[in-house]
Amino acid sequence: MTRPLELTTDVLVIGGGPAATWAALKAAQAGADVVLADKGYCGTSGAAASAGTGIWYVEPDPEAREKAMASREALGGYLADRRWMVRVLDQTYAGVNELATAGRYPFPIVDGRPLRRGVQGPEYMRRMRILVRRAGVRILDHSPVTELLVAADGSVAGAAGHRLQTDEPYRVRAAAVVLATGGCAFLSGTLGCHVNTGDGHLMAAELGAELSGMEFSNAYAIAPEFTTLTKTAYYSFATFYREDGSVLEGAGSTRGRSVIARALLREKVYCVLDRADAETQAKMRLGQPNFFLTFDRLGIDPFTQRFPITLLLEGTVRGTGGIRVVSEDCATSVPGLYVAGDAATRELICGGFTGGGSHNAAWAIASGAWAGQGAARYAASLGPAANRRPATGAGGAGLRPTGAPDRNLGHRDVVAAVQAEVLPYDKNYLRHGDRLTPALEALHGVWREVRAGLHGTGADAVRTRQAAAMTAHARWMYTAALARTESRGMHKREDYPDQDPAWRHRLLVGGLDEPWTRPDEVAPVGPEEFAALGSPGLAGTSGAYLRAAS
Amino acid sequence: MIEIVSRERCIACDRCVEVCPRNVFDRGADGVPVIARQADCQTCFMCEAYCPADALFVAPLAHPARPDSPLRDEDRLAAAGLLGSYRREIGWGRGRTPGARFAVGPELPATPPPIVTTVTTRTEIGEGIGDTISEEVTR
């Protein structure tokens, strides 16, 4: 085997999307030496780069902020925490303004004022890469991480992976690590999400981190059939039709998506964006140019001609679940391990429902900044001795099978087996215990095979680890989905159709061979609890801050 | 998926090799990048956005186009102005204003769609380049 490339640094950021770049930037600004390792190319990889996204950017005006916080609390089932919303709104406002000034992002000017409520993905990530490089961060592109390194005391000590373009293994010794690896869309074909296979979740769990909100994992987006173009928002201008040309009543881009899912189980569904007038059509083109690439290239006028649609699973990319955050600097329960963006749970600001952009984009900026700063502080506290700690690879499934490597078990088979349980609308979207239970059993079976025999080396190890991560991810999703015996947020159970007040708490899930769940002892801080707290100061409260309202 | 690297247009800068988030391209022996792992392409159009020579074409399908597909006909796509169209739309390239400057989308309707009673004729097949595409999409 080739001798690995060896690097040492204070902070290692894993990922290359918005959260990763904000973490790297803020860690570097805090004085840390930083390495950023991206599975793809920092600037193009991930859900944000290829799309356009709104951002939860709200002027610091009390009335506007109150409205922004109140707008989605019911939708999220009141599992959010207003203290986090307040600080995310502040940090997002500062971050977006920094992007505009230091990053020279060309925000639109409307009535003489810049409009900063959204960004175009390619432009945003191109400029974030420039900011990160200018801050002195070393970027490793095409360098997927396959496992974390762990010190004798259980704290994280870096990561190891494989550089795809030079086909060489590498290791980065680091005092602290930020996981910004995104959510998991199970290679469903949703736009820009092929790198989002839940790798960070598996690596964190292997070190003992918990996850939260994994039952809120069934986001599906509308796309023209056989394309990747998931941009559900514009379908609010659509009328949906059955195969026979009759209107599919009740179908819609928001609450009516389950009607579409139900219809798709039986027949093809078509749509026309016939509710957009000429002025709206022109604005749609300006707002999201890549939305029209597909139609223009297929010779379809989406405003007058019907086209078949599908729903693609966005899993925890636009669901809210992720690695549990235990303090306001986005630390996990593993010493030295921080988490940001879609890899982290977003329940803290949106409860059991997100969808695309907006809150996710804001969370990426805010959690990225805090995780980067937190990791820099932690690294400074360890000092230069940190990288002399003995460190061993913590990767299990897909890398170090417990039995003899099974040559008949390929990563493609594993992915196909997992997809068969998580993609179908009648299992994941239209949820019922009678269908979730056998699906979870099947996934446990896949895991046992993966654990015992799935093995890869070199670039192949990247793929076996992805397959293992997707298997683990799916099991946490359905373990939590079965445990939450009610409907709340995006988690809708046909066998438990009502929201149950006894379930107004967040649900933790964890474990690898034996998944477990338990209620989060930290209670949500909704509008009423927040009002009862008065105006709590946010500074210097650290861990106690999170436990204050429990 | 990525279908075309134009041998005529390519300036062998390897930018696509560098920026593809899925590492789909390999450097070619003669300098023109090779589509080495098409199955890994995620149809994100990012390579097109970064190509300074408008030499790439990504078909908007999540599967490979058929060999006889117009989506693999370079001359036809070039004539239709589709090579480099994404880069033009987002305003990247010398002398262009970034599209981000103009990216103000419409207000989304707050009310659910009304039930439409008049049913228009279903049209799947578009004009021009799309003549034979819809069949491909719905196969």
Automatic annotation (TrEMBL), chain A:
One biological process term in Gene Ontology: 'de novo' NAD+ biosynthetic process from L-aspartate
One Gene Ontology MF term: L-aspartate oxidase activity
Cofactor(s) recorded in Swiss-Prot or TrEMBL: FAD
Segments forming domain FAD-dependent oxidoreductase 2 FAD-binding: 10-102, 104-216
Catalytic activity: L-aspartate + O2 = iminosuccinate + H2O2
Lineage, opening ranks: Bacteria, Bacillati, Actinomycetota, Actinomycetes, Streptosporangiales
Function according to Swiss-Prot or TrEMBL: Catalyzes the oxidation of L-aspartate to iminoaspartate, the first step in the de novo biosynthesis of NAD(+).
InterPro entries: FAD-dep_OxRdtase_2_FAD-bd, FAD/NAD-bd_sf, Fum_R/Succ_DH_flav-like_C_sf, Fum_Rdtase/Succ_DH_flav-like_C, NadB
Domain Fumarate reductase/succinate dehydrogenase flavoprotein-like C-terminal per the UniProt entry, residue ranges: 431-509
Keyword terms of this UniProt record: FAD, Flavoprotein, Oxidoreductase
Official protein name in the record: L-aspartate oxidase
Pfam assignment, any one: FAD_binding_2
Domain of life: Bacteria
From TrEMBL, chain B:
InterPro entries: 4Fe4S_Fe-S-bd, 4Fe4S_Fe_S_CS, Fe-S_Ferredoxin
A GO molecular function held by the record: metal ion binding
Gene3D superfamilies tied to this protein: 3.30.70.20
Domain 4Fe-4S ferredoxin-type residue range list: 1-30, 31-61
Keyword Hydrolase in annotation: no
Highest taxon of the lineage: Bacteria
PANTHER family per UniProt: ADENYLYLSULFATE REDUCTASE, BETA SUBUNIT, FERREDOXIN III
Name assigned to this protein: NAD-dependent dihydropyrimidine dehydrogenase PreA subunit
Natural source organism: Thermopolyspora flexuosa
